Amino acid sequence: MGSDPNRTGGDPAAKSRRRTARWRIMPKPPRREVPLRHSLLLRLLAVSVVVSVCSVAATAYVVVQMTAVAIREEQGQALADDAKAYDALLGYAARHPDWSDVSGTVAALARRTGHRMVLTVRGHPRPVADSDPEPGVPFRPPAKPTAVIDPLSVDPDLLPRSASDRIDPRAAGPFLLPRDERDMLDVLASRLQACLQRTAGADTRIERGPSGRPRLLPAGVSATSGCPTTALAEPTPTETKALSALSTLVNTCLAHRGVPAVTLSLDAGGRPVAAGRWSGGTQVPSCVAAGRAEQLAPYVAPAAQLYVASPGRAATTFFALSPANKARIAGSAALVLLVTVAVTVLAGIRLVRPLRALTAAVQRLAEGDASAQVRVTGGDEIGRLSVAFNSMAGRRAELERLRKAMVSDVAHELRTPLSNIRGWLEAAEDGVVDNDGDLLASVLEEALLLQHIIDDLRDLAAADAGELRLWKVPVQVADVLAQTANAHRADADAGGVTLTVTAADETLIDADPVRLRQMTGNLVSNAIRHTPRGGTVTLHSRAADGTVRIDVADTGAGIAPDELPHVFDRFWRAEKSRSRQTGGSGLGLSIVRKLAETHGGTVTARSTPGVGSVFRLTLPLLPRTVDDG
Hints:
Oligomer: single chain
Structural class: alpha+beta
Radius of gyration: 60 Å
Number of helices: 13
Helix content: 40-55%
CATH superfamily of the domain at 470-629: Histidine kinase-like ATPase, C-terminal domain
CATH class of the domain at 470-629: Alpha Beta
Distance between the termini: 31 Å
Strand content: 5-15%
CATH topology of the domain at 470-629: Heat Shock Protein 90
Strand order of the largest sheet: 12-14-15-17-16
């Protein structure tokens, strides 16, 4: 214990080995990476991705919605233009037997819609009408026409309200009334209108159909008026002739299909229909439509193909910054901004909250609160930082506790020798004792005790601070035990204690020889002090289970079972008065425990009161890899 001369001696080779193999008492803990799923960087990236996705999705949604609206408006406008052009050309074809005079109609439609319109007859690619011809360039029709103009086969997509037989009602053909018949019917219609007004107070109007036949609207008013209506409903000679020809065609068709003949009449609008009750299901309307198409074919223009194009012209409808569209854009932008800010604020709060808690804990720690801790809420970088801070705060609190304990222990332990030195010097100054060799010997003894305590305190402070260095080399256990016995044999002989050593010569360990002699020396010195005259102290070593076990046994008074757990505490002594009759500092066994832990070993004690005690030092037997740096 204390200032061991072996600690400063040794050959140069041993010193070189010590310099090249330095071990720290507390190695740095291994660095562990934060798992990727808990990474703060990944969370920030995820927040950015979420915000970006929300922004892009909202922007795309707005663009798609606005574009869809514009496209629907454009398509609706285009469809309306096509329907108007189709209806106008269909009306021309229903009233003319050919397309010879259609150029004016096509030009007017092109000016109104802003499109180029080209009309060709089936089987003849040369246009019969072109609203914007290119000089010297023949017209090359596209693969599919915009519409087929055929009054006998109306396209229901362009004219949804067309008749069920798909024949344009404006195609009158042989049912077109001459002027004299129209005038006669006009007179009858006027008389009937006046009668209805006079007798029933009905407000009616006269409407003329495509064939020139007048009719009263609303229909059905004259049914209960008592006014004569039969004269107006009777077919004219022209209509009778046309009905007769149509009946022949229809009944011929029905005969081929095995269906009984029917009688045709005119409805209120002058349209031929099958009168009365008839059988045959859908065969009758089908034959009526086929007969009408055959009868009207010579009176209408042949089927033609219409091509509509818009060269060099923008869409008739487009997305404009109208007040409604501006409001829609502003609302969508505000919504995107609100969602983005909300997501960012929530993410920021979750990220900043642990940082604020950590900052508050650091401030408490700086103000002297040694118990400052933070709650660990995750496994990301902030969580790791919180764990490190808690570890640091705990370590600081432990060091503060050790510092206070050491200051208290040092003050207690140094008080006695200093008081003795002061007492002897004051006695010599006052002439109470002679200033002779005995006085100097007493003062020197107390000074050596102070030096002993200070050396032990220095070793413990270095161990507590993690700064106790080891210079490990292969060491023969037997040699160290022999050196320890030789160093303490004088004290053993002076105390009447027998000191023996038994150790295997071949046992090697990787250890610091100076610190190993310090450990065994402290144990032997402690055993000699507590062994009465005539007793025995034995050093014994043996290898077992990959370790070497060094036992220091004595035949002293032993230690009580309730005191045995405290034998390695600092400044602990079995004497409750903490007297120095045994001459120890109370730090030797604490130093042994620290040095054993530094070597990766342990020290234990067992004792039987009245029989003696055994202190066992267990160290690894297998050598460790020496750091050559």
